[in-house]
Amino acid sequence: MKKLVIALLMLAAPVVLLGAKGEGEVPRPGPKVPRPGPKNAVAVIHGFGESHVKGVVRFMATEEGVVIRGEITGLTPGKHGFHIHEFGDCSSADPKCHGGHFNPEKKKHGGPHSEERHVGDLGNITADESGKATFHMTDKLIALSGSHSIVGRAVIIHGGPDDEKSDPAGNAGPRVAGGVVGIANAGHK
Length: 189
Ligand SMILES: [Cu+2]
Ligand SMILES: [Zn+2]
Description:
Blueprint: H1 2-24, E1 40-47, E2 54-62, E3 65-73, E4 78-85, H2 95-98, E5 121-127, E6 133-139, E7 154-158, E8 175-183
Antiparallel strand pairs: 1-2, 1-8, 2-3, 3-6, 4-5, 4-7, 7-8
The site of copper (II) ion has 7 residues, from strand 4 and strand 7.
């Protein structure tokens, strides 16, 4: 009889253990599902001080990266440094308002296609003879959500070209215009 009890206990033990494990188990959260961030964002650009630069830059998150489209007028013909700066304060041209290039990875300055670059390094936009710059690019580093999110930061346009190599800011001259990146209605064009 004793032997039978022991045998039964031995048979039951793993079941009890398994049962205990099952009951005591704290429900583990599943794999982190990325929160769907905003798909569209916009920056309305205005000139600082006496500058008459103005325009709109639109951002759209896609599988290939963030598509950037914009039209800016009132520029001097030629290339102008075009960056995302750390802070979204466009109250003046004072660099303290916008800070440096958005650089969450603590990298050196570069161009949009450089191996090493700031997340905010979008290179240049080019204005035609009338001072109008129309552009369309896709960037793989900036994002509209997560640690590379540009939402709430500033788009800044410089008076001169970004050489895409001089650290920390590409030697692009004064900041002539800017706008804060805000979440846009996805239904908008
Ligand atoms: Cu800049
Ligand atoms: Zn930079």
